[in-house]
Hints:
Layout: H1 3-7, E1 13-17, H2 22-33, E2 37-42, H3 45-56, E3 62-66, H4 75-86, E4 91-94, H5 109-138, E5 141-146, H6 163-183, E6 188-195, H7 204-216, H8 230-237, E7 248-251
Helix pairs in contact: 2-8, 4-5, 5-6
Amino acid sequence: MPLKQLFDLSGKVALVTGGSRGLGLQIAEALGEYGASVVLTARKAHELEAAAAHLRAQGMTVHVLPGDLSALETIDAAVEQLLAQVGHIDILVNNAGATWGAPTAEHPLDAWQKVMNVNVNGAFVLTQSVLRRSMLPRGWGRIINVASVAGLRGNDPRMVPTLAYNTSKGALVNFTRALAAEFAAQGITVNSICPGYFPTRMTRGTLAYGEAAILEHTPMRRLGGDEDLKGVALLLASDAGAYITGQNIAVDGGMTAV
């Protein structure tokens, strides 16, 4: 098979949560460029429409689905609604996330629950729904979880503690392994991307005071850029990555290597 064909996503439908900006939009750009029809979902309809316009200007087929991933009881109906429009979901990118910074002894319980609800519970309920309704009946699927280097290591004591975020991303790392093993024989691969520090709205506060310390511990001495997740996302979403499953791939400029 020609190598270009292995990466071709024509005829595939990719659902990207938190796809209206940041890393989710970066991944959506990559999948759409290689032929996938892209569905973006996020809480804010106006941001979704702006992102969709950005992708359509590049010739991509885009649908939007406003919704709150933390409202777990709405997810099944949203998936049903989407499938009625697009027919099937071949690629699921669990990218939506929340964070909270606070010393652990002072961490509010409601903030802990918010982070867990989006980062873990929402990813579980959505993945379960997509598996049941599309991937398992069709015998093919690609699930890409956007975890974090925060799920692979502890927190630098010079930074604001983010116990809930670290815990949730650690959960997503093992969610990836367990899910991959369960469905490996059914045509479905499950992997995660673990980004280091990228300039996004979520990281703005951290970078404002901690960028120097972060760069000091990043061998490449730079933050992640606009193109840095695209290659690995395309690999994991396509037939080029068909024999890769259960892996948590750090995209961090070497941070976790030292």
